[in-house]
UniProtKB/TrEMBL annotation:
<dbReference type="InterPro" id="IPR043129">
    <property type="entry name" value="ATPase_NBD"/>
</dbReference>
<dbReference type="InterPro" id="IPR000890">
    <property type="entry name" value="Aliphatic_acid_kin_short-chain"/>
</dbReference>
<dbReference type="Pfam" id="PF00871">
    <property type="entry name" value="Acetate_kinase"/>
</dbReference>
<dbReference type="InterPro" id="IPR011245">
    <property type="entry name" value="Butyrate_kin"/>
</dbReference>
<comment type="similarity">
    <text>Belongs to the acetokinase family.</text>
</comment>
<keyword id="KW-0808">Transferase</keyword>
<keyword id="KW-0067">ATP-binding</keyword>
<dbReference type="GO" id="GO:0047761">
    <property type="term" value="F:butyrate kinase activity"/>
</dbReference>
<dbReference type="InterPro" id="IPR023865">
    <property type="entry name" value="Aliphatic_acid_kinase_CS"/>
</dbReference>
<protein>
    <recommendedName>
        <fullName>Probable butyrate kinase</fullName>
        <ecNumber>2.7.2.7</ecNumber>
    </recommendedName>
</protein>
<keyword id="KW-0547">Nucleotide-binding</keyword>
<keyword id="KW-0963">Cytoplasm</keyword>
<dbReference type="GO" id="GO:0008776">
    <property type="term" value="F:acetate kinase activity"/>
</dbReference>
<dbReference type="GO" id="GO:0006083">
    <property type="term" value="P:acetate metabolic process"/>
</dbReference>
<dbReference type="GO" id="GO:0005524">
    <property type="term" value="F:ATP binding"/>
</dbReference>
<keyword id="KW-0418">Kinase</keyword>
<dbReference type="GO" id="GO:0005737">
    <property type="term" value="C:cytoplasm"/>
</dbReference>
Length: 357
């Protein structure tokens, strides 16, 4: 059995190949000026196909066939968690960016591109739009504005399953708070296998992160528009890509910001402390959402590699539940494991129909 996994991120493409029990995994970085030449995410299709081809050749898989191809899910319409066959409806919604532009939208399209070359099925797994929120979590506080589920679903679910296993129980038997801390930060309340509440980092919700603003005071945002400082479109981009640490310090790279802090830059120290403070508050809020019945708090994403940040955060939230560390992302492994479950007949791939947005 040989399976190809493709995980496109905003400045990298991660690739994995499963072959008879062994996984080969790698990533190709795309310099910002190079990837910045494309007007839209979908315009990068040929470029990313070529990148994946080059990787496969370099790793000795150039002449190989595949039994299935699996890609990261994108911002399609809200769906329950699971594995989805890439079909026409899914490809159309990815191309139309029905729930927003994101590099992840290329995942299903690239998977299909390679699957068609080999005459095999293509899948996507746990797209960021999976929606398992309970009704209370949908209230924003204003009629007409509903909180939406959009988060690092693939990685959150993968590490949650892994931690449940470490605890010795099934994912659907535990309550976990999973905090993915990457360029964006999303924190989810996983209640017995369902993510019943989670912040949508891309939309200005939750803690600030290296790149995202998180929740902002609404009147302050309106003033920026009224005073002509930013247009609504500029603000949408700032909230998702140029907020958080980037806006305070000019860099979204926590390693660089920590270096600045270590060299005595007090602004950098305070901004990192504030990010930790906001993440801790989010964890506390989710603990209350789960009635305090929390089996574990899981920290994952690139930011969780920072030992000092993890130590500070642990001191603030360890009164809630034990902490489990899963730094980095585990998406390629999760994609390959999911495709393997389908190919082995242990799980059935769902049909994406593209219900209401
Ligand atoms: N060893 C480390 N120490 C401190 N920070 C780190 C370390 N490694 C990565 N980071 C930080 O993690 C952040 C990026 O995380 P990650 O690679 O998970 O994000 P991404 O894939 O770009 O975005 P996302 O996870 O939101 O999809 C950056 O701010 C980076 O500086
Ligand atoms: C994947 C959606 C969440 C984020 O990037 O902040």
């Amino acid at each position: 059995m040989r399976i190809l996994a493709i995980d496109p991120g905003s400045t990298s493409t991660k690739i994995g190949v499963y072959q008879d029990g062994l996984t080969t995994k790698g990533g190709i970085e795309h310099p910002r000026p190079e990837i910045g030449c494309f007007a839209s995410v979908m315009d990068q299709f040929d470029y990313r196909m070529q990148v994946v081809r080059q990787y496969l050749e370099q790793e000795g898989f150039g002449a190989c066939g595949f039994d299935a191809v699996v890609g990261r899910g994108g911002l399609v319409r809200p769906v329950p968690g699971g594995i989805y066959l890439v079909n026409d409806a899914l490809v159309r919604d990815l191309r139309d960016a029905v729930s927003g532009e994101h590099a992840a939208n290329l995942g299903g399209v690239l998977a299909l591109g390679f699957a068609e070359l080999h005459g095999v099925p293509a899948f996507v797994v746990d797209p960021p739009v999976i929606d398992e929120m309970w009704p209370l979590a949908r209230f924003s506080g204003l009629k007409g504005i509903e909180r939406k589920s959009m988060f690092h679903a693939l990685n959150q679910k993968a590490v949650a399953r892994d931690v449940a296993q470490e605890i010795g129980r099934g994912y659907d038997e535990v309550n976990l708070i999973v905090v993915h801390m990457g360029s964006g930060i999303t924190a989810g309340a996983h209640r017995k296998g369902r993510v019943v509440d989670v912040n949508n980092g891309l939309n200005g919700d939750g803690p600030f992160s290296p790149e995202r603003s998180g929740g902002l005071p609404v009147i302050g945002v309106l003033q920026l528009i009224e005073e002509g400082i930013h247009t609504p479109d500029e603000l949408k981009a700032i909230v998702a890509r140029r907020g958080g640490l980037f806006s305070y310090l000019g860099s979204p790279d926590l390693r660089e910001v920590e270096r600045m802090a270590a060299q005595g830059n007090l602004k950098a120290r305070l901004a990192v402390d504030a990010m930790i403070y906001q993440v801790a508050k989010e964890i506390g809020a989710l603990a209350a959402a789960l009635d305090g019945e929390v089996d574990g708090i899981v920290l994952t994403g690139g930011v969780a590699y920072s030992a000092s940040l993890v130590e500070q955060l642990t001191r603030k939230v360890r009164f809630i539940a034990p902490l489990y560390l899963r730094p980095g992302e585990h998406e390629i492994e999760a994609l390959l494991a999911a495709a393997l479950r389908v190919m082995n007949g242990e799980e059935q791939a769902k049909e994406y129909t593209g219900g209401a947005a």
